[in-house]
Amino acid sequence: MANHRPSPSKIELCQLTHLYLSDKASFLAVKEIDLRVAEGEFVCLVGPSGCGKTTLLSLIAGLERPSAGSIKIDGTTITGTSPRVGYMLQQDYLFGWRTIEQNVMLGLEIQGIRTKESEEYTLHLLEEMELADFRHSYPAQLSGGMRQRVALVRTLACKPEILLLDEPFSALDHQTKLKLEDLVVSTLRRQQKTAILVTHDLTEAVAMADRIFILAKNPGRIHKEFVVPEELRLALPFEARNHESFSALFHQVWKEMEAINHVHE
Ligand SMILES: Nc1ncnc2c1ncn2[C@@H]1O[C@H](COP(=O)(O)OP(=O)(O)OP(=O)(O)O)[C@@H](O)[C@H]1O
């Protein structure tokens, strides 16, 4: 398992370290993280609360500047936010006074790339997510799962090459979550996007990822890497859950998580 090193790297974290500084104190959130993600790869980050998962995504999104080390995208060090990177969060952050169509066009407007072509592409995404009939509705009229699909369309509308997903399914009911997992994986695979997903749900990580990284905390660092077997990677998440090798990998990941949680107790 340890020799799986995909290349070339779409994202490369090199000795990435981040210290949060305030007037009175400093806190080392992540320390010397080395991580490469290949183009088209789907990587999951799991680990105990406070191990720096969201910090890593904020750094890769360019929302925070690292204290040390570097982040490269396609070999070039990033210096701030970029339209090439889309970020989707647990909360959908839709604007209640805008229709669904107006919400999904928002990113295009902000980036100044709202054209007839990009509008058509976005409407096509709405159709793919089975939301076309709701384009003139308002967010309050939609279910949680539908709203997350709207948020996904808004993120994909700007054609990011990389998607950062911070627990995007955690507020959803189980059935909706399973359906959305399949939809996200099939869409990202078809569009050959590179994705990093943060989740607390180990079954979700095993079902969706190509590789899983367990982070440990104080300071946040990579504890262990798992390469998901090919038969699971080729399946969609729902189908992967029924696969024989699913429970074997789940138990390995679970055992490692138990071991580090034990250390932190
Ligand atoms: N702005 C900040 N200032 C100071 N400390 C921070 C700040 N943001 C995060 N931290 C600290 O950095 C550590 C990592 O936080 P982070 O949110 O990245 O962890 P996480 O693994 O995403 O946690 P969770 O699973 O609970 O969402 C935590 O101890 C947190 O308290």
Account of the protein in words:
The mean pLDDT is 91. This protein has a domain of 66 residues. The chain has ten helices and ten strands. It is α/β, with parallel strands linked by helices and 265 residues long. A hairpin with a 2-residue loop joins strand 4 and strand 5.
Order of helices and strands: EEEHEEEHHHHEHEHEEHHH
Beta-strand residue percentage: 15-25%
Low-confidence region ranges: none
Radius of gyration from CA coordinates? 19 Å
- N-to-C terminal Cα separation, in Å? 29 Å
Question: In DSSP terms, counting alpha (H) and pi (I) runs of 4 or more, how many helices?
Answer: 10
Largest sheet: 6 strands, mixed
The small-molecule ligands in this entry are: adenosine-5'-triphosphate
Major β-sheet strand ordering: 6-7-8-3-9-10
Organism: Brevibacillus fluminis
Protein name: ABC transporter ATP-binding protein
Pfam family, one: ABC_tran
Domain ABC transporter: 14-242
Question: What keywords describe this structure?
Answer:
about 260 residues; alpha/beta; six-stranded mixed beta sheet; four-stranded antiparallel beta sheet; about 25% strand; globular; binds adenosine-5'-triphosphate; ATP hydrolysis activity; nucleotide-binding; P-loop_NTPase
